[in-house]
Amino acid sequence: MDFQISDEIDGYRRRIADFVDAHILPLESDPSAFDGHGNIALSRLEPLRAKARAEGLWCLQLKPETGGKGLGKVGMAVCYEAMNRSIFGPVVFNSAAPDDGNMMVLEALGTPEQKAEWLAPIVAGKVRSAFAMTEPHPGGGSDPGMIQTRAEKRGSDYVITGRKWFITGAEEASHFILMARTSDDPRHGLTAFLFHKDQPGWRIVRRIGIMGPEEHGGHCELEFDGLVVNEKNILGGEGKGLKVTQVRLGPARLTHCMRWLGLSKRAVEIARDYAAKREGFGVKLSERESVQMMLGDIAMRIEIGRLLVMKAAWALDQGSFARKEISMAKMHVAKVLHDAVDTSIQINGARGYSTDTVLEWIYRYARQARLVDGADEVHKMVLHRFLADEGDGFWQWPVEAK
Questions:
Q1: Which of 176, 180, 186, 359 has the fewest beta carbons closer than 10 A?
Q2: Is 58's pLDDT higher than 90?
Q3: How far apart are CA 160 and CA 325, in angstroms?
Q4: Burial of residue 218 (number of CB atoms within 10 Å: 0-12, 13-18, 19+)
């Protein structure tokens, strides 16, 4: 791969960086800018989203015909990192989970009619969305083959029963993508359905409290007791649910990593700034070898994460599913995010543990990174399967086609 980025991508990066610095970062020190769950208050968010749209920084990840700029995954890696210099950044540019992944899968697999009905309102920022796959035990989590929510066909409709939980954004979502079982076929038994929040036959059981700050709409447990979905609202075709999960979850895991790198760099930024000012025992913290070693180590590990993310993004742009590359990036960057903010808190001392900086926010948020979209151990098993199948080919270089 070529590690140079285009002038166009760098232009977007610079414009995003300027926007974040001028309009979003100041809100982090304003208590009134936060909602009750630690996210940006909707009243403060909407004017920023309008400004991002007006400046041409809206939905950069989508194709021009969908309303985006068609940057591709490499361009997204550069821009998403810049967006998440602020804890509020991605949602301002309509590039935050779960809408981000939902828009991309609807763009990739939706029919023209489905795109008009289900995708366009999310792109316009008129509604939010959720992806309902994970279930309580004994249902499916990281293994979609264990999904037990069922959809029974009755004429041209499907009647859906079952439970989901930890569904991100569900309390604020209007459009849902729901994974349900339409047969017991191990490869073709799952189907993805589209439904609206106002349809009867389902309910939010509870909003599940979590340790960290939350996305808008929280993480909810859902119950389905006779939800009726017409066959026209099947995404990707009956029995094609596994393909939908591949198209939806692979890139979404990587976009998490892109954003987490921005937060990791922000943590280092705060640590470096404090170390350059704070004196103790006659020297500045930045002059102490122990602090230099801490910052040098985490800077290297962030750069390794950037390279892993960029390789996976490049592979996706070449048409690969990049499962191996995404698993490596997901594991590494999730750990780096936690360690970067932990290091920064250690250097900042009590200040880092307080709410005087966003470090404690990032620290609480960071712990979920090793769980969401597949726990570390699941990705290690994925990598072992590739190693067992490929042997020494696991480390092969891509060869330029003649």
A1: 186
A2: yes
A3: 35
A4: buried
Tokens 């590494």 locate to: 332
CA distance 326 to 329: 5
Q: How far apart are CA 263 and CA 273, in angstroms?
A: 15
Q: What would the pLDDT profile of 250-297 be if each residue is shown by its tens digit? A: 999 999 999 999 999 999 999 999 999 999 999 999 999 999 999 999
Please name which of 277, 278, 316, 271 lies closest in space to residue 297, comparing C-alpha atoms.
Answer: 271
Map tokens 């066959």 to a residue.
231
Residue with tokens 């979502």: 173
Write out the H or E segment, with its range, that includes residue 98: none
Per-residue model confidence as pLDDT tens digits over 121-158: 999 999 999 999 999 999 998 888 899 999 999 999 99
Percentage of the chain lying above the pLDDT 90 cut: 96
| 163-172 pLDDT, tens digit each | 999 999 999 9
Please report the domains of the chain, with CATH numbers, ordered by start residue: 7-123 (1.10.540.10), 129-240 (2.40.110.10), 242-395 (1.20.140.10)
